[in-house]
Design a protein that fits this description.
By secondary structure, the protein is an all-alpha fold. It has one domain. The protein has 8 helices and no strands.
């Protein structure tokens, strides 16, 4: 699956710089603190800035159900090094509680406890995108030299 996605990205008929930019933008979105919105954000950004869709989605999907745990843990750890905050007190979770506005207001009142995660995730997003661009650009150029014409 990943191999096929990368093959499509490598064979896109666009300058390598634009493809690498789309991939790095996807990486930024994928590691952002806006969990669950990566697909929507990638689609909106791809359309708004006319970026290559296979490249942006491939970058965004680096965060997936198998990698999201370590990403969240790393984001929280990094952010908590910079912004100390008390532990989140989770309200009792049940199907009826989720439908009650008091559950959401109680959770929302603790937004400051989520700040370390958000800060850590943004740092990882920026660093990931900064690393992804030159790395993808080098890979694209190398691939296209070895496989001229796709």
């Amino acid at each position: 699956m990943i191999r096929e996605a990368l093959r499509r990205v490598f064979n896109v008929d666009e300058p390598p710089e634009r493809v690498a930019l789309a991939f790095a933008t996807g990486v930024f979105i994928g590691f952002s603190p806006l969990l669950g919105l990566q697909t929507l954000l990638a689609a909106l950004v791809a359309v708004a800035f006319r970026l290559n869709k296979p490249a942006i989605f491939t970058g965004a999907y680096l965060s997936n159900p198998w990698t999201i745990g370590p990403i969240v843990a790393g984001s929280w750890w990094l952010g908590s090094l910079l912004i100390p905050s008390p532990r989140i007190e989770m309200p009792q979770l049940s199907l009826s509680a989720i439908g009650d506005s008091a559950f959401w207001f109680g959770l929302g009142a603790q937004w400051r406890q989520l700040l370390p995660f958000a800060v850590g995730a943004m740092i990882i997003s920026v660093v990931g995108a900064v690393i992804a661009y030159p790395l993808m650009l080098a890979l694209l150029r190398s691939y296209r030299r070895r496989h001229p014409g796709g």
